[in-house]
Amino acid sequence: MKYPNRLREYRTKAGLRQVDIAEILGLDCADRLSRWENGLAMPSVVNLFKLCALYQVLPHEVYEKLYENIAKNLWIKP
C-alpha cells in the first residue's frame, strides 16, 4: 500500500535536503525520509508531529487523501 503525501513538497518549500531533516530528527541516514516521501512507509506519530512542527503544517495536510478516506469510513451507515 502506498501512502500519498506532501512531505517532499513541504521539505523543498522549506529549502531543506533529506539529509538535513534526517539530522534534525536524529535519524542515522536519509533512507527512511526517502521511503516516507515516496509513500512506501509512514513516519511514527512522533516523527510525523516533528515534521509537521518543522514545516508548520497539520498532519491532515501532509496525508490529505488518507485523512479523507479515514474520515469517510468513520461515518456509521444505517
Helix-strand layout with pairing:
Elements: H1 7-13, H2 18-25, H3 31-37, H4 45-55, H5 59-62, H6 64-74
Separation of the first and last Cα atoms: 29 Å
Instruction: Please give the domain count.
Output: 1
- Whole-angstrom Rg: 14 Å
Assigned CATH architecture:
Orthogonal Bundle
Rounded mean pLDDT score: 94
Q: Low-confidence stretches at least 5 residues in length (pLDDT < 50)?
A: none
Task: Tell me about this structure.
- By secondary structure, this protein is mainly α.
- The protein has a single domain, classed as lambda repressor-like DNA-binding domains (434 Repressor (Amino-terminal Domain), Orthogonal Bundle), CATH 1.10.260.40.
- It is 62% helix and 0% strand.
- The chain is globular and about 40 Å long.
Provide a concise account of the structure shown.
With 78 residues, this protein is mostly helical. It has one domain: Orthogonal Bundle (434 Repressor (Amino-terminal Domain)), CATH 1.10.260.40.
Kindly list the characteristics that best describe this protein.
78 residues, 434 Repressor (Amino-terminal Domain), mainly alpha
